[in-house]
Structures are given as structure tokens and as C-alpha cells.
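Entry for the shared binder. Reason: the reviewer on the internal report wants the predicted structure included alongside the sequence.
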Amino acid sequence: MEKILLKDYSKICDGKFLKMYKATFAGTKGEKVYEIVSRKDSPEFLSAESKVDAIKILPYLKKDGKIFVYLIREFRFPIAKQIYELPSGLVDEGEDPCDSARRELLEEIGAVAKSVEKMETRAYSSAGMSDESLEFYIAEVDHFENQDLGASEYIDVEEVELEKLDDYLVKENFCALSKLQLRIFQLKMENLRLKDELKKLKSSKI
């Protein structure tokens, strides 16, 4: 693959949570000026730093022989409306992403996790504009306490039976990454169900 080199850059915005850069890259097709958003003090186009910026967690609970997932409806200021998502948040400096997942669950939906498992490794959320990266987790809920929301967070929590999740995914507005994570969970649970049925069928023939 052709090597594309950074020629020049400048910081054009230095916000509390986001920084914006204008960078010039050069390749055989000429130069390209690109605007890049980053959460890092040292963005990836300048360094080899590759820490996880944020996490997204899929919380579920088994009760009465059924599986329930917990969605949030959060007001998102860039689109000025509520949208369905999974709990998520930034990884604090020096914090292990798994600990971030437990913390965000408690803060956003008041859930105490029985277990937390990494569902997918680090991936970029929108590489066309940002170096932001996330890790994806799945968490079995043990019990619920009170939410601990920030002053600018407006979050409602909805318990949805897994069997009825399709209605939400088809009809409601979702964050794209949350929607994909929920679809993967559906497939995983269906695969486990089929394996269990196959095991029972084999046992009955012995």
C-alpha cells in the first residue's frame, strides 16, 4: 500500500472533551487537507498512542426463564432528540476499560453487574472523521440500585424482553453501534438455544 505522509498540522479547536485538528497529508495523488476530531491530547496521526477512549455495554438479565436487555433513551445534543442506545461512556485516565464498563452501568442505569465480559476488541467508531476507539462489553446484571447521572445527562431506562427486541430495532431510532451490538447478541443467544436443543435431541436418542 502507498505510504501517505503527514506534512503539517494545526489545532483549530481545544474543547473540554474534543479537540479538532487540520492536517495536511501527501501521497502520489497530491496533498489532502483533512479535519480530524480526537479525544486524545496526542492524536493517533501524531503518535503511536492507541488507548481505548470509550466503552459500550450490553446489560442483560435472566429471570422467569426469559432474557431481558436494558436499553437507554438518551437526549443527544447534536441531533436535539432522544435516541435508543446501550450504556456507554469514556474511560478515565488510568482506568481499566472493564472497570469503566461496571462504573458506567451503575451510573447510567443503576445496575450492579454479576459478570462483565469483553464482547469485541478495540475498534474505531468513525474513522472518516475521528480516531475515537471503543471496546464492547456484555454484562449480566445482578441487581439494581439508583442511577447516578451527570448534570447534563437525560437518560430513561427500558427493560425489553429479548423476544420483543426486533420491534424496537426495526421501528425506533438507534445509535448504529448499539444496534449492531444488539444484533450480535441476538445471534449469540439464538446459537446457544440451538446448541441446547441439539444436545437434548442427542441425549434423547441415547
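Summary line for the report: The radius of gyration is 21 Å.
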